[in-house]
Amino acid sequence: MNISRTPVLAAAALALLAPLTACGSDAGAEDGKTLRLWHYEEKDGALGKAWAAAISEFKKTHPDVKVEFEQKTFDQIQQNASMILNSDKAPDVLEYNKGNATTGELGKQGLLTDLTPLVEKRGWDKKISESASLTARYDEKGEMGGEKWYGIPNYGEFVLAYYNDDLFKKYKVGKPTDFASFEAALAKFKKAGITPLANAGNDHPAEHWLYLLALSQADKKWVDDYQLYEGKVDFHGKEWTYAANKYKEWLDKGYFEKKDVGLKGTDMTEQFVARKRPIMVGGNWWFGGLTNDIKDFSWSTSPYPGSELTAGSGGNNWVIPTKAKNKKLAEDFIGITMSPKIQKLIGEGGNIPLAAKPDTIKNPKSRQLIDAFDQYQKNDGLALYPDWPVPGYYDTFVGSTQNLINGTSPKTVLDQLAAPYEKYIATRR
Q1: Beta-strand relationship, 66-71 and 34-39
Q2: Residue 69: what pLDDT?
Q3: What is residue 215's predicted lDDT score, i.e. its pLDDT?
Q4: Average pLDDT per block of 10 residues along the chain, 429 residues long
Q5: CA-CA distance, 230 to 425, in Å (whole number)?
Q6: What whole-number distance in Å separates Cα of residue 102 and Cα of residue 119?
Q7: Sheet of 34-39: strands edge to edge?
Q8: Which one of 97, 144, 337, 354 is most buried, by most CB atoms within 10 A?
Q9: What CATH superfamily classification does 6-156+314-373 receive?
């Protein structure tokens, strides 16, 4: 956006800083009898329902404690967190976005409580895999993968394959088990006159495709070099070169539609829901909506068969501000969100609990989803997201993949991706 956002940010900041009045109480009283909690999940979503259940459970186990919950928007918290958490209006616990520029930045500024002793005491480091906890742990520079836990994620997210089972049966296409059979399925659908792959060029799905193709040629060291700056990344090396060339090949063969260049993610899901595309590769965050929207055909999920690595990470973090007045209560609440009861609820609702066993989930589609995520966790296969390493990189990725769809050469597109990355790396030296 090119317009000034200052008035909007100021209004949002004032709204966040305003005293809590909905409960008619003196918010922030230092009596150990009030838990102030913020999150931004919609109440009808899997996480919103889970957090509501966790609040109810907290009230049962802490009958003498008042819970003052406020639902904020993602943008309210994202844009004003450092100012809020550095004031006496800081809540005791809140949901906060993961990443170097968010949880990492506030941890570096000293605004978040170091939860490492709590994690070790409660054994959460044993329940959450190393790859899923990467975005909860930061170093002194505020960069992911450090030794200090500044947040607790209790759900996961990743990119996987969605299949229209009815169309696979109708056209006698075998379900892919590896990359060769995946490409064979694309070719067979195209031969039958069907564009196989849903896509959205004006949103994250197109960049996810490019990253997945690069990951198919990569190993964990390459991911750490790219995401954690542990080594030099060559944008004209085999990984990115293969990705851009394969992307162009699929465009030329008609596996993607070039006219999808201007579509958003919701347009991509509509292609799948409307039975126009038999295959969609996207985040598990689409799962709940698809469950509600698809009524007239059978569908399933599976790990994307092209790679043992996928775009994904642990979910957003529960964090405790340094200035929180009731940290012990906040710790107890986070503990409840990690309990088997709440973790199971997350799973049954179509999300991915980090501390629940798949065989405890009765919903078969949800269990299928969790099984796929667990495969990546066991193999340390969560490779974060392609736009994370550089501030503002998301817009670069969207523009570059759109250029690729519109016919710009793979080499030029890789040059476009390399420039801001290499410029940022130079500032870190």
Answers
A1: parallel
A2: 95
A3: 97
A4: 32 44 40 88 86 97 96 78 88 92 91 97 91 93 94 95 97 96 98 98 94 96 95 97 98 97 95 98 90 93 91 95 96 96 92 86 88 86 92 91 97 98 89
A5: 11
A6: 20
A7: 66-71, 34-39, 93-96, 317-319
A8: 337
A9: Periplasmic binding protein-like II (3.40.190.10)
Spatial neighbors of 2 by CB under 8 A, at least 6 apart, are: none
Query: Same fold for the domain at 6-156+314-373 and the one at 158-312+384-428?
Result: yes
Q: CA torsion angle for 6, 10, 12, 18 (degrees, to 10)?
A: 180
Measuring CA to CA, which residue among 350, 384, 345 is closest to residue 369? Answer: 350
CATH number for domain 158-312+384-428, candidates 3.20.20.70, 3.90.230.10, 3.40.190.10, 2.60.120.260 = 3.40.190.10
Rounded distance between C-alpha atoms, residue 386 and residue 29, angstroms: 43
The domains of the chain are located at 6-156+314-373, 158-312+384-428
Q: Give CA angle at 70 (44, 346), nearest 5°.
A: 35
Q: Report pLDDT for 162.
A: 96
What per-residue confidence (pLDDT) applies to 359? 81
pLDDT in tens, 306-351: 889 999 999 999 999 999 999 999 999 999 999 999 999 999 988 9
The CA distances from residue 266 to 27, 217, 260, 349, in Å, are: 39, 29, 12, 20
**In this structure, are strands 93-96 and 34-39 parallel, antiparallel, or unpaired?**
parallel
